[in-house]
Structures are given as structure tokens and as C-alpha cells.
Amino acid sequence: MDRCVRNVRGRLLAFACVGESSSPVASARYSGSRSAGLCRTHVFNELISRDEGLHCDFACLLYSLLNAKLSEERVREIVADAVDIEKEFICDALPCALVGMNADLMSQYIEFVADRLLGALNYSKMCEA
What we know:
Blueprint (H helix, E strand, L loop, with lengths): L2 H33 L9 H21 L6 H22 L9 H18 L9
Helix pairs in contact: 1-2, 1-3, 1-4, 3-4
């Protein structure tokens, strides 16, 4: 198989991971700040979140059209790396608990989103969150 095609599969999956996992974390931060009245200028965050979701959906659609998909082991490895990076980010970004949001809850949500992504790609869940 051509090296470019092999790289496209992993890149599509990474693109889906970024769109799916980073937007909920950013949304939660802005939503928490907005509900506290701290960030009134972030009115377009919902549109950005929808856009990121569409990026993920598009990546999943393109991936589904590929004849040769990645092994489940490789997919889980890529998604697990994305989950670890997002959890590390959220723990650094939320060093102290906010009302209704803390690093543990966000970590659970990141795992839930990862399982949702795996389901959209027709792979079994990884985290069972």
C-alpha cells in the first residue's frame, strides 16, 4: 500500500480526535465562564463547537469510505493518545474545581467523547464511560 494512503488513514483519525475531543473541553470552559457572567464576548462559541463537530463527522465519513482501514489496535492507540493529551490539558487548565465543573468530571466526559468517536468509526468502546 502506498505510504501516502497509509498516512491519510491515521491523519483522518487524528483530525477526528481533535475535532471531537478538544471542542467539548473548550466549550465547557467558555460555558462555565459565561454562566458565571465572566465571558460575555464568547457568544459564537456554540457555532464554533458545532463547526468542530462537523469536522469530526466529515472525518468519520471519509474514513468510512476507505477500503483499507487501520487495525483496531492502531485506532485505539491514536484515540488513547488523544484522550491522554486532553486529560493532561484539562488538569492543567482547571487546577481548582469550579462550580459544576472540575478536572475529574471533564476527564470522564473526554472518555465518553472518545467512546462516542470509536462508535462512530464502528470500533468497540475503549473507556466504557
